[in-house]
Design a protein that fits this description.
Blueprint (H helix, E strand, L loop, with lengths): L29 E4 L5 E7 L2 E4 H6 L19 H5 L2 H14 L5 H4 L2 H7 E3 L4 E2 L8 E4 L3 H11 L16 E3 L5 E3 L4 E2 L2 E4 L8 E4 L3 E2 L2 E7 L18 E8 L2 E2 H7 L13 E3 L4 E2 H4 L3 E2 L19 E2 L2 E7 L6 E7 L7 H9 L10 E3 L14 H4 L7 E2 L5 E2 L7 E9 L4 E12 L6
C-alpha cells in the first residue's frame, strides 16, 4: 500500500508556518485534553490539534475497519495494536481530509468547530500506556567517552559492546510528557576520598539526549523475531530526555547497573512521529566492525537523518544551545535492538518503549550529556546570563528538539522540555 500522505507537493487548507515541524506530510499521533476536560486521541497539523475521536464519530474514517471507540480513548495502545496496515490507512485518510483540494471538512464550519483546536487550547498527555521500558546504550561515541572517563582509555569499550546492543530495563511509572517538571532526586552517594556513603540530594543531575521507539505487539513469550521482521513492529518515535543522577549512579551501578540514578524521571515529547513519516529520511548507519552475529546482520538503510539539539535555560534567562547531534550516529539500529530484545523469547507488547541510549556525535559540540560536554565538570559551559554549568542547576530547563529536513519537506518532533526543581518536600 503506497504512503500517499508523504507526497511532498501536498498542501493543507490549514495554515502551516514554513518552518513548522508538523506539515501535512507528518501527521503524528498523540493524546490531548481539551478545555472541556475531554481526553481524545489526536494528530497535529501546523499549530492545530485535531480530534480523531470526533472525526471518527462524524464518519470521516468510513471504509476503514476500526472499532467504534478506537480514537475515543486516553491512550494510543489499541490503535497501535491494530498494526501497520491500519496505521497507514488512517494516516493516508487524514492527509486526504486536510488536503487543500478536499472541500468535505474544509467547507463544513460546524464540523471544523468540533474537530479542530488551537494547540494553545489543549493539554498534551502521555500518548501511550507504557507497560515496559528498555533503555539501550547504543552510541559508540558516548560509550567510548564514558569508558575513557571512568576506565582504561585504551580499552574504553567493554568486550561485549561491539557484539550486542547493550541495554537495561527502566521504570515506566516515571515516564512523563514534556512540560512536567522533575524534582532533583535524593539518594546515596560516596563523596570523593570517603569510605562511607551519605544520603542526600544528587549534586550531579544530568540530561541524556535520546530518542525512543514505541512498539506494537511483537511476539508471544518464547518467540523471537528475525531482523527482517523487526521494523514492521515499530510504530514511531519520540524524543527522550532520560534524566540521570551521575553521583548516585557511580555508587550504585556495580554489579547490576543503573537503578535509582535513572528511574526518577524520563521525559518524552508528546507526539509520536510514525516510521512512515520518517521514510524519506532513511540513511545508512555507521559501519559495524566486527560484523555482528548472523541474527543481527542487516543490509540497506536502517537509520534516519534526524537533527537533534539540546538547549539549557536558566530561570529568567534566555536558553543556550549546548549540543547539536544526529540520530544517524547510532551504532546499533532500532531493528537490531528489537531483534536482540526478543532473541531470548522476551515478550514485547503494544505501547512498550525502547530508548536509544545517549546520542553523541564525533565532535565535542555534538555530545549528548553534560557529563561529556563538560568532561565530568572539568570544562564548565557558559550560559546566556554569564553563569556557568558543570551539571544542571535547580530551576534550569532542558529543551530538546529534533527534525528531519530535505529539499522538499521538514518533519519534526516538536520538543521535550522539562524544568529541574529542588528535591520534593512532603508538606
Amino acid at each position: 500500500m503506497p504512503i500517499t500522505a508523504n507526497r511532498p507537493e501536498r498542501k493543507s487548507w490549514l495554515d502551516v508556518p514554513t518552518d513548522s515541524d508538523f506539515p501535512i506530510q507528518n501527521i503524528p499521533f498523540g493524546v490531548f485534553l481539551t478545555k472541556e476536560n475531554i481526553v481524545t486521541v489526536g494528530t497535529r497539523i501546523g499549530d492545530f490539534a485535531i480530534d480523531l475521536g470526533a472525526l471518527q464519530q462524524l464518519d470521516y474514517f468510513d471504509g476503514i475497519d476500526l472499532t467504534d471507540d478506537m480514537f475515543m480513548q486516553d491512550t494510543l495502545n489499541d490503535f497501535i495494536s491494530d498494526g501497520h496496515k491500519t496505521w497507514r490507512l488512517v494516516r493516508n485518510r487524514i492527509a486526504d481530509i486536510f488536503d487543500a483540494e478536499n472541500p468535505k471538512l474544509r467547507d463544513n464550519t460546524e464540523h471544523r468547530n468540533i474537530v479542530i483546536f488551537k494547540m494553545e487550547d489543549v493539554e498534551m498527555q502521555l500518548p501511550v500506556l507504557i507497560g515496559d521500558y528498555t533503555d539501550f546504550y547504543s552510541s559508540k561515541e558516548h560509550a567510548t567517552n564514558v569508558g575513557m572517563m571512568f576506565r582504561d582509555p585504551e580499552n574504553a569499550l567493554l568486550p561485549n559492546w561491539l557484539h550486542i546492543p547493550v541495554g537495561y530495563h527502566g521504570r515506566s511509572s516515571t515516564i512523563i510528557p514534556s512540560g512536567i517538571p522533575v524534582h532533583r532526586p535524593m539518594g546515596q552517594t560516596l563523596p570523593n576520598g570517603e569510605t562511607s556513603p551519605v544520603f542526600g540530594p544528587s549534586r550531579l543531575v544530568d540530561f541524556e539526549l535520546e530518542t525512543a521507539f514505541i512498539t506494537t505487539d511483537v511476539n508471544i513469550m518464547g518467540e523471537n523475531i528475525s531482523i527482517s521482521e523487526a521494523e514492521g513492529y515499530i510504530f514511531g518515535m519520540v524524543l527522550l530526555n532520560d534524566w540521570s543522577a551521575r553521583d548516585i549512579q557511580k555508587w550504585e551501578y556495580v554489579p547490576l547497573g543503573p537503578f535509582l540514578s535513572k528511574n526518577f524521571a524520563s521525559s518524552i515529547s508528546p507526539w509520536i512521529v510514525t516510521m512512515d513519516a520518517l521514510e524519506p529520511f532513511r540513511t545508512k548507519g555507521p559501519k559495524q566492525e566486527p560484523t555482528p552475529l548472523p541474527y543481527l546482520q542487516q543490509k540497506g538503510k536502517h537509520s534516519f537523518d534526524i537533527n537533534l539539539e539540546v538547549a539549557l535555560q536558566p530561570e529568567d534567562a534566555e536558553a543556550t544551545v549546548i549540543s547539536r547531534s544526529n540520530f544517524k550516529y547510532m551504532y546499533w539500529s532500532m531493528c537490531q535492538q528489537l531483534t536482540h530484545h526478543t532473541s531470548n523469547g522476551c515478550r514485547v507488547n503494544s505501547g512498550d518503549m525502547m530508548g536509544s541510549g545517549t546520542i553523541s556525535g564525533p565532535t565535542p559540540d555534538s555530545y549528548g550529556s553534560m557529563l561529556e560536554l563538560t568532561w565530568g565538570g572539568k570544562n564548565p559551559i557558559t550560559m546566556s546570563d554569564g553563569t556557568e554549568r558543570k551539571f544542571i542547576n535547580d530551576y534550569d530547563t532542558v529543551i530538546m528538539k529534533g527534525y528531519c529536513q530535505n529539499g522538499q519537506v521538514r518533519i519534526g518532533f516538536g520538543e521535550v522540555s522539562s524544568k529541574l526543581l529542588p528535591p520534593f518536600v512532603r508538606k
